[in-house]
Amino acid sequence: MSRPLPAWLPGLAFVLIWSTGFIVGKAVVPVADTSLFLLARFALAGLMFMLAALLAGAAWPAPREVPRHLLAGALMQGIYLCAGYGAVAHGLSPSVMALLGALQPLLTALLAIPLLKELPSMRTWRGLALGAAGVGLVVLPAMRAGAPHAVSPWIVLVGLLAIVSITMGTLLQKTSIAKADIRASSAWQNAGAMLVAGTLVMVNGGPGALHWEPGATLWASLAYAALVLSGLGTWLLLALVRRGRAANAAALMFLAPPLAAVQAALLFGDHLVPLQWLGMAVAGAGVWLCQTQGRTQRAEAR
Q: What parts of the sequence cross the membrane (predicted)?
């Protein structure tokens, strides 16, 4: 008789996969326009989920629910990734983007109170504060190194738009669309993300006018982004959000920037200073507090 998987394994798998998004984004910028790359990524991932749903005979969402699935995908993947990749491509430091990303779990916790009636406990709030502080310590040296490079405030606002977008998309996963099969829902959500990326591609002149440099780097990045990041990574995120509280699931994202810093050190030779190692430990402690919370109280309806 097979033993059940440990409860912590999906969360660990998610953060390991999600953290590699920073590396993929860095690798793609020199070889392809980010919006065109994301359009191809969403198309491949959507096709994969559609085939998986059809082969499994999964029930598809009712027509009246389809707009919600499209909107959730447009927010959680389309706007989030197009804005985030676009901001980095236009000069925003990946470390600053990572720091902005640390706002997402906090924003999720705050908005979950009025929208989902989920009131995080004090233990969760302490974990969220530690997680944000840890991410700040990890990215601070990189921010100092890039301090002389001035970035337009509009680019920073685009980065903030990415964080607000994924927050709202995450909260939407806790509404009625949570009843749908994840495979069928993900197929529709990738279609919603395609609408965002496709609009940007057409606004920028169409596929023929955008940078696209075929080669091993592009094809490997596209395959990994579609199958692993948009495929397995997003599936794990949806499963975690559906299973638990929105704030506790979002807290896992605190581990993405520290893990990305380690990956950058291994792959690109980036140097890690003691402050960054301390930040990783602090962020890990914060996530541990959030994930070991026994229960989350619900805000009473007033």
A: 7-29, 35-58, 70-90, 96-116, 128-147, 153-172, 218-238, 250-269, 275-292
The span from the CA of 208 to the CA of 71, in Å, is 28
Asked if 220 and 92 touch (Cβ cutoff 8 Å), the reply is no
CA distance 276 to 140: 8
Give how far Cα 8 sits from Cα of 4, 67, 120, 161, Å.
12, 33, 20, 31
Structure tokens at 63: 């027509």
Helix (H, G, I), strand (E, B) or coil at 233: helix
User: Could you read off the pLDDT of 15-61 as tens digits, one per residue?
Assistant: 889 888 867 877 888 999 999 999 999 999 999 999 999 999 999 99
Cα 291 from Cα 8, distance rounded (Å)? 9
- Quote the CA–CA distance of 227 and 147 in Å, as a whole number: 36
What is the C-alpha separation between 29 and 211, in angstroms, rounded?
Answer: 10
Q: DSSP assignment of 192-212, as one string?
A: HHHHHHHHHHHHTT-GGGS-B
Q: Which of 184, 167, 181, 156 is nearest to 50 (CA)?
A: 184
Give SS3 for 171: helix
Give the torsion sign (CA, 240, 242, 245, 251): positive
Residue whose pair of structure tokens reads 């109170």 in the numeric block: 113
CA atoms within 13 A on the CB side of 78: 26
Distance CA 17, CA 20 (A): 6
One-letter-per-residue 3-state SS of 12-40: HHHHHHHHHHHHHHHHHCCCECHHHHHHH
Domain ranges of the chain: 9-291
Q: Structure tokens of 122?
A: 């004090």
Q: Write the CB contacts of 244 (distance below 8 Å, at least 6 apart in sequence).
A: none
What does each C-alpha distance from 259 to 76, 135, 159, 272, 283 come to in angstroms? 21, 10, 20, 12, 11
Residue 185 makes CB contacts below 8 A (sequence gap 6+) with 61, 69, 72, 177, 238
